[in-house]
Design brief:
mainly beta; Ribosomal Protein L24e, Chain: T; two-stranded antiparallel sheet; two-stranded antiparallel ribbon; 44% strand
């Protein structure tokens, strides 16, 4: 699955898991991306949009 928002471009960021003994191992922070129907120039289109963009009102959801 594509973990990229088509509106803001937010994507996967890498970091570290840190255990109690302070050992480090690689991990991924994935954005909360939803596949929704959006109105774009009067036409309905399916887009992958992060929930932050939906909450901000950067996209207009279609019925």
């Amino acid at each position: 699955m594509a973990y990229r928002c088509e509106v803001c471009g937010k994507s996967v960021v890498f970091g570290n898991r840190v255990s109690h003994s302070n050992k480090r191992s690689s991990r991924k922070f994935r954005p909360n991306v939803k596949k929704i129907r959006v109105l774009v120039n009067g036409k309905v289109r399916r887009m992958r949009v992060c929930t932050a963009c939906i909450k901000k009102g950067l996209v207009t959801k279609s019925a």
